[in-house]
Amino acid sequence: MRRLSAKENIFPLANPFTISRGTYTTSPVAEAVIEADGVIGRGESFPYPRYGESMESVLAQIESVADAIASGAGRAKLQSLLPAGAARNAVDCAFWDLEAKQAGKRVWELAGLPEPPVLTTAYTLSSDTPDQMGTAAGEHAWRPVLKLKLMGDSDDASRVGAVRAAAPNAKLIVDANEGASASSVERLCHDLAQHGVDLIEQPVAAGDDACLAEFEHPVPLCADESFHDRASFDVVTGRYAFINIKLDKTGGLTEALAVAAEAKKRGLRIMTGCMRGTSLAMAPATLIATLSEVIDIDGPLLLAEDRPHAMVYRGSDVEPPARELWG
Question: Model pTM?
């Protein structure tokens, strides 16, 4: 018989992290554990208030399916027991981990994928004044890809300009976190193009992004808050070139793999993203990252401490997860 349990873990960040919605000093994550005949599978998720989630609501959702899982419900049934979101992600990834351990295989073998290679992730710069972001960019100018968090105000172009001057050779990804308005987004896109930005994530609020279909995009746009799972495809078509697949949005690796396959069919390009998670959350994301053009799984680099058997980051290069961690 399987037994499902869940708990909150809180990991301190190495430095305060600022985006358009606020400043954070910790990463509170939910850990789901499924035990069956002495074998344990684990998964992690990040409850995100932007999507109406809290730690309490996510833990309650996980608890709500404990009896069903004890009675034999598996990963396939889980997809209908819980909606897409952080709770299902934690349980889904715990199932994958459990199944791999029971089969004596790695998760990518179960998924019919090759072993993830060493991947190169973006490194995220917290939003700050232009001068401070320029200084931070100078310290990380050696990294191949930098991701900038913007604030949606009049200083955003200056922030990007300062980063570009300090890191002239880095590929730049900009994440506006819905901060721009419908009236300012076209100008913002053109301003960022002048600084050689390669990709802009979610420049305007989800639900207000019909305006993106009304002008030519000098920089490719990526749907983040506007895209969650396969039900989101019709919403983003014609507005974005990329979708950002995050397991906390899709509700786990199972749906994320289906999303990636459908994106390829529709000609949408893929970015793999993450929340403020530990290596336990990044490990399953590496399978989606192998299918992506842009990779942002730097969550552990922002932490003051990580989990045991943490994923190995050598600069911006990420090695596949160890069996002891996940999968």
Answer: 0.95
